[in-house]
Fold:
Amino acid sequence: MGFDTIIANGIVVTATDTYLADVAIEDGRIVALGRNLPRDNAKCLLDAAGKYVFPGGIDVHTHLDMPFGGTTSADDFETGTRAAAFGGTTTLIDFAIQYKGQSLRTAFDTWMQKASSKATADYGFHCIITDLPDAQLEEMPQLVREGITSFKLFMAYPGVFMLDDASIFKALRASAKAGAMVCMHAENGGAIDVIVKQALAEGKTAPKYHALTRPTTAEAEATARAIALAEMADAPVYIVHLSCNDALEKVLEARDRGLPVYAETCPQYLYLSIENFDVPGFEGAKYVFTPPLREKWHQEKLWKGLKNDHLQVVSTDHCPFCFKEQKELGVGDFTKIPNGGPGIEHRMSLVYSGGVGQGRFSVNRFVELVATTPAKLFGLYPRKGTIAVGSDADLVIFDPKREHTISAKTHHMRVDYSMFEGIKVKGMPDVVLSRGRVLVEGDNFFGRPGQGEFLKRGACPAL
Ligand code: URP
Ligand code: ZN
Ligand code: ZN
Structure:
């Protein structure tokens, strides 16, 4: 009698504990944790001495194969899940978009088609709602029953994705009743549109004007409005891609009042700033995403927010567009640059390096931010997001000493530049497993398209 796989002698880290143990895996699940587990008949023995063993990372904000800005994001579910795995992320929650006039079911079916034959690791979907007549409102509970237990709404991008306050309020009420969480893109799209039109009329067309026309106040106002609408609807709300201290203060104020308000930030807001636009020519287009980059001082506020649980999650908002031909659609007019940046591969190393490596928070808090809380908030826990008997064997053997310089020359994302080019990280995944199967070992990838499974998620635990 023996186990399928043993990860031997690693330092197992969960959101609450750090201890030396072997991890035994059978049929894709963790079946035992302890010292000196019998390993004689193990089909696969992985030595983790001196390394951490983390739960696989969970990135709850990705846009794979997404039509946007006149083009389509450059990673599909095959290349995106592969790049994610190289970075230690084994579960994604992507966004299925309901376009105006469509049913929510169409969005789900369309994204299942994109993902099911390609994904090399497990995935779920949030559903983006852009249009909410009664028929779609009535569809929401059915989607929740099928495992789509969160909806993304936009307060920005008028005419494309933006919903009015009445629709947002209705969606919040319907979500809470059905057991789902609303994820909010919080920026005042109406005000931003006026500022953008004025900039263009004044001949301000360079990429940096994308950032200069989207003030932090527009994000803070929408964050406060989202929270107020959620409070009136008696619903939880999750603010996505929070980028600045002004918005963070609104979240903190609400959490101090005991409201079920949650927020994520992304590595780009922790590492990059408006100064990244100080590059020649059109290069600044590499940093055009929404919300935009902010002044540098916001970064430390966000790191502190992560430490103190004012922010609960780090996701990537991975939405890659190649510089050549895709970002270039906006030469001469920043409003035509497809919004989004590539980051799915480097979240774990960037957050570990900047968070644990720089002494800002513990390794347990790191696990909580990148795996455990995402799993809990989005109905995947304890199947995902922790290391426990019975959990899926989504595991990362992570070398805290290995150094790496991020570069487009070596990354696995299907995009011709890196937002983090030249940034040095310390702490890299060595081996990555998804449901007990080795996906990544060093530079080698063993995953197969289609082996990732759709995750039918549970109800939002805040309800
Ligand atoms: O610029 C971004 N963030 N693109 C993706 C869409 C969104 O708003 O999340
Ligand atoms: Zn957004
Ligand atoms: Zn996004």
Summary: Residues 61, 63, 317, 319 surround zinc ion (ligand 3) (CB under 6 Å). DSSP finds twelve helices and 19 strands in the chain. The first strand starts at residue 5 and ends at 13. The CA atoms of residues 66 and 73 lie 5 Å apart.
